[in-house]
Write a structure and sequence with these properties.
96 residues; mainly alpha; 2 domains; 69% helix
């Protein structure tokens, strides 16, 4: 919720926001910048640089580990690798 408010000035738990179509919502979500809380979470989850990961603070490490563990438990190794590459590519596009 805070990411939508900080980036777009939109409160998503309002009657006004209920009229937003699913396609519009997906567009807003995919355009979320890296400076928002959601963008920072995506950056933590998709980080691949071991030096950066080793320097994560306690909360960043918790977010990173929880995401990896959850995703790893529910998918095959090949699928996991493909999904992580796609997420990393998408985030790189958002940061341009």
């Amino acid at each position: 919720m805070s990411s939508f408010l900080s980036q777009y000035g939109l409160r998503i738990r309002t009657k006004e926001f209920e009229s937003v179509s699913w396609d519009e919502f997906k567009s807003l979500l995919s355009g979320m910048g890296p400076e928002t809380p959601l963008g920072r979470m995506v950056a933590i989850r998709s980080e691949t640089d071991k030096d950066v990961i080793n320097n994560f603070n306690k909360d960043q490490k918790r977010i990173y580990d929880a995401w990896r563990n959850r995703k790893a438990e529910s998918m095959a190794p090949d699928t996991y690798d493909q999904e992580m590459k796609a997420l990393e590519q998408r985030f790189a596009q958002l940061c341009r």
